[in-house]
């Protein structure tokens, strides 16, 4: 199976040298190999890869392999130049893919030993696909030693003899094997030949993932065999598409709320002024979001936001540095294994800053202050306002559904179809009963009374009795009081009668349907001949519709009347909540929108990646629709200074993901543009629809195909590891981190309990390490409560549990660039050690290779145009040792 997102079938090369001669005859060289491709058009070298340094060895075997860049894909005619150097001073070295251009900048003291050139065709035709080439020194004399280059074969695909297989694709002919799938990489292929021949994940990922960066390695196992490891990092189009969709939904929701406020009708001057102020605030948010959306629409072709733009206002809804990373492992006589992770900067409102703290603190403070300012309005608790929004949502769903079911009932009556009549009536009864149950809430009745009291000229019972007394004592004021218009006293029982009428109308419909069907059954009994003519005459298929029509019309009218009143009542509740929110509540809502947008984009990316990878795993699909997936966010933020506020933002943003459901749909076509996930809903509940092509969709379980909503259980674990966390642990406050870890441990434990009740644990993936999940949870629980500084075992154990549970893994720090890179590479090497028997002697070398030349240093380059992790020596002294990068790969830079 090809890796997710791979746009072509690449060729991987490994390199070794023999008998190298150092510039100083009395020492062994610190060898590295720089790889360049000769541009076939411009005939110049394009430097694109470099191995790690092997110290003091004249016969070095390099662990870092060579891949071909997408802009210069391999073909038999491709010319490759290998240049071997002796890096004398390793302490100043940070190898770059532009090594030759950057030597002076990076102060690498190195000397050229020799070079060799070969074509890919020569390599493929060679015995065992292996070439031994003489290294020519700068003076052309072949005395520098030899370089051995061989082709790495990863997985079963490359072992198939497909070098000459071709397939016709509209206006393209794509050759497999050593050639690139060029038609796929440029997005021109709109059919699913590749799905039927290879794997669904290859083609599906082209719609969502792009700009792959690939690195390969070979590491030795404990039994002295070689495993091949491939890292692939990609950007995700959802970085921009999800926030843009969310912004459009936010605008739509706020415009709808403004319209609802207008439809409240006449209000007393006090309430009318509050309404105008609230509408002005909404108008400001709508205008701001429209400007942001317009700015985002101007950006074309970009699919990730670099860390240097994290505080840019026009991009504040975009997640920072969102990438997927997959590690693929090929071991002798074993099935390939894949390990996925999503890396993203902590979801936070960087543009707004953190002087007052983050969302968690701001929201708590706001709720306390709102009660004290509620004198100008009726205070409703967050639970009440949430209930009001829920009632509005349910009504907006059920009212049109009831209308459609009524039409179906009349259609069945018109067709004189008893089965159709029974089926439509059953659904109509269920939905109408649900509708009535929703409206029986006390909040609706009390809100109607409050709305009535807020209208002009309202006089309460108490006011009327006081007024009567005043009339008797001061008759001169009567004339003035009589000029004040007032409503009749509000009848509190009126609302109960209204929703009860809906139930009565439904009962009348049910009774009429029963009567019609009973009469129909009677007419089907044998009839004497002398009565047959009368029966035929009286039987008219239109009778059913005519008899039902007045009743269902009355039902629709009652439902509409109830909806109008309830909608105004709930809108009035939300008006009061908004009035008590000026201006702080609106600012917090904007901040929450921003953080949620970043978090949802990351979650959608992870869900899609996990879904594509598990399409053929029946156990995973069963777990998906029966229970849902756990999404484990690992955070490395400190609980000090600005990062404290970032963590507070992130906590709320991740928690808000509980309001998200996923739904898998059948795509309109196989075009890549029709495979983009779509978001729908409102702030209190969003659904992300993930379209799949017809061939893939019809392989899914029936529950998923029928549109069952799929849950995700987000959990967050945080352990700060930098020097600021040291300050927090000694002089500050780490209670936020402790509370987050404890709370989310309980969520994870509850998820496992639910999963074990509904899904056989045999459906979960198998791992070499046989530690039971229950035992891992006990270990995690112990670590969560342990008073241990920088207890990174919490992160390791939580990550292991997530993988065992088929979950989605995320890793974050401030910008997903430096600390995240250390965590991802450590996790990958730990997986190689624990699951694939990586030799202990190779663990540190593997870790250094990935951190020096792997995808994560490329991520740094993409973000800040510099190949150095943003650490200094003092900072690293505070890091746990396993999170420290190799020498020469770090230096303080602006990030």
TrEMBL record:
UniProt signal peptide: 1-23
InterPro entries registered for this protein in UniProt: C2_dom, C2_domain_sf, INPP4
Catalytic activity: 1D-myo-inositol 3,4-bisphosphate + H2O = 1D-myo-inositol 3-phosphate + phosphate
C2 domain location: 1-133
Coiled coil residues, start to end: none
Biochemical pathway: Signal transduction; phosphatidylinositol signaling pathway
EC number: 3.1.3.66
MF GO annotations: phosphatidylinositol-3,4-bisphosphate 4-phosphatase activity
This protein's UniProt keywords: Hydrolase, Lipid metabolism, Signal
Gene Ontology cellular component annotations, sorted alphabetically: cytoplasm
PANTHER family documented for this protein: AGAP000124-PA, INOSITOL POLYPHOSPHATE 4-PHOSPHATASE TYPE II
Similarity annotation: Belongs to the inositol 3,4-bisphosphate 4-phosphatase family.
Protein name from the UniProt record: phosphatidylinositol-3,4-bisphosphate 4-phosphatase
Organism: Astatotilapia calliptera
């Amino acid at each position: 199976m090809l890796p997710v997102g791979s746009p072509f079938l690449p060729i991987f090369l490994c390199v070794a040298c023999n008998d190298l001669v150092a510039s100083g005859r009395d020492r062994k060289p610190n060898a590295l190999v720089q790889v360049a491709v000769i541009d076939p058009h411009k005939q110049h070298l394009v430097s694109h890869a470099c191995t790690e340094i092997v110290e003091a060895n004249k016969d070095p075997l390099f662990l870092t392999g060579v891949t071909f860049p997408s802009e210069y894909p391999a073909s038999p005619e491709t010319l490759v130049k290998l240049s071997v150097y002796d890096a004398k001073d390793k302490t100043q070295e940070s190898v770059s893919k532009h090594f030759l251009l950057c030597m002076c900048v990076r102060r690498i003291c190195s000397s050229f030993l020799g070079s060799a050139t070969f074509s890919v065709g020569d390599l493929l035709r060679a015995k065992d696909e292996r070439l031994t080439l003489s290294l020519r020194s700068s003076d052309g004399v072949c005395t520098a030693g030899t370089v051995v280059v061989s082709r790495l074969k990863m997985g079963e695909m490359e072992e198939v003899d497909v070098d000459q297989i071709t397939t016709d694709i509209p206006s393209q002919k794509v050759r497999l094997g050593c050639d690139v799938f060029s038609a796929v990489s440029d997005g021109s292929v709109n059919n699913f030949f590749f799905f039927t021949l290879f794997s669904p994940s290859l083609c599906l990922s082209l719609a969502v993932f792009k700009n792959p960066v690939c690195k390969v390695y070979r590491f030795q196992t404990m039994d002295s065999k070689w495993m091949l490891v491939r890292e692939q990092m990609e950007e995700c189009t959802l970085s921009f598409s999800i926030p843009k969709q969310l912004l459009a939904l936010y605008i739509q929701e706020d415009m709808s709320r403004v319209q609802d406020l207008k439809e409240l009708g006449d209000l007393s001057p006090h309430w009318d002024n509050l309404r105008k102020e609230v509408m002005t605030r909404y108008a400001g948010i709508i205008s701001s979001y429209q400007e942001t959306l317009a700015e985002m629409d101007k950006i074309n072709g970009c699919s990730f936001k670099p860390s240097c733009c994290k505080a840019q206002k026009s991009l504040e809804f975009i997640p920072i540095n969102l990438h997927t990373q997959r590690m693929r492992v090929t071991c002798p006589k074993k099935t390939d294994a894949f390990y996925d992770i999503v890396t993203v900067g902590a979801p936070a409102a960087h543009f707004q800053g953190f002087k007052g703290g983050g969302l968690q603190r701001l929201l708590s403070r706001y709720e306390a202050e709102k009660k004290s300012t509620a004198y100008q309005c009726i205070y409703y608790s967050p639970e009440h306002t949430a209930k009001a929004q829920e009632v509005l949502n349910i009504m907006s769903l059920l009212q049109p559904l009831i209308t459609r079911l009524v039409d179906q009932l009349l259609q069945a009556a018109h067709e004189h179809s008893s089965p159709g009549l029974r089926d439509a009536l059953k659904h109509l009864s269920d939905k109408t009963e649900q509708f009535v149950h929703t409206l029986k809430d006390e909040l609706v009745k009390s809100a109607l009374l409050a709305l009535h009291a807020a209208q002009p000229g309202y006089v309460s019972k108490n006011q009327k009795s006081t007024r009567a007394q005043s009339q008797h004592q001061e008759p001169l004021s009567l004339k003035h009081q009589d000029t004040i218009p007032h409503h009749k006293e509000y009848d509190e029982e009126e609302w109960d009668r209204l929703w009860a009428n809906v139930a009565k109308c439904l009962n009348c419909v049910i009774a009429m349907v029963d009567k019609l069907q009973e009469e129909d059954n009677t007419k089907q009994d044998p009839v004497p001949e002398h009565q047959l003519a009368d029966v035929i005459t009286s039987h008219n298929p239109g009778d059913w519709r005519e008899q039902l029509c007045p009743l269902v019309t009355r039902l629709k009218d009652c439902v509409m009347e109830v909806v109008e009143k309830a909608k105004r009542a709930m809108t009035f509740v939300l008006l009061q909540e908004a009035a008590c929110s000026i201006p702080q509540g609106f600012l917090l809502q904007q901040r929450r929108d921003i953080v949620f947008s970043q978090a949802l984009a990351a979650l959608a990316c992870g869900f899609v990646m996990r879904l594509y990878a598990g399409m053929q795993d029946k156990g995973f699909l069963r777990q998906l629709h029966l229970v849902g997936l756990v999404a484990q966010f690992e955070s490395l933020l400190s609980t000090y200074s600005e990062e404290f506020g970032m963590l507070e933002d992130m906590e709320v943003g991740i928690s808000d993901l509980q309001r998200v459901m996923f739904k898998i749909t059948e795509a309109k076509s196989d075009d890549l543009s029709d495979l983009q996930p779509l978001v729908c809903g409102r702030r209190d509940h969003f659904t992300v629809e993930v379209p799949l092509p017809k061939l893939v969709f019809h392989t899914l379980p029936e529950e998923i195909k029928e549109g069952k909503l799929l849950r995700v259980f987000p959990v967050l674990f945080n352990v700060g590891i930098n020097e600021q966390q040291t300050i927090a642990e000694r002089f500050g406050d780490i209670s936020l981190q402790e509370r987050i870890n404890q709370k989310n441990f309980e969520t994870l434990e509850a998820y496992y309990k639910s999963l074990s009740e509904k899904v056989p644990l045999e459906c979960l993936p198998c791992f070499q390490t046989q530690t039971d999940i229950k035992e891992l949870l006990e270990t995690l629980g112990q670590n969560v409560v342990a008073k241990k500084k920088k207890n990174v075992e919490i992160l390791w154990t939580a990550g292991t549990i997530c993988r065992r549970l088929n979950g989605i893994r995320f890793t974050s720090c401030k910008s997903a660039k430096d600390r995240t890179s250390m965590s991802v590479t450590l996790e990958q090497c730990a997986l190689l050690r624990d699951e694939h028997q990586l030799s202990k002697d190779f663990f540190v070398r593997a870790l250094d290779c990935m951190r020096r030349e792997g995808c994560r240093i490329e991520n740094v380059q993409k973000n800040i145009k510099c190949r150095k992790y943003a650490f200094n020596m003092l900072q690293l002294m505070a890091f746990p040792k396993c999170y420290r990068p190799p020498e020469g790969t770090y230096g303080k830079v602006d990030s």
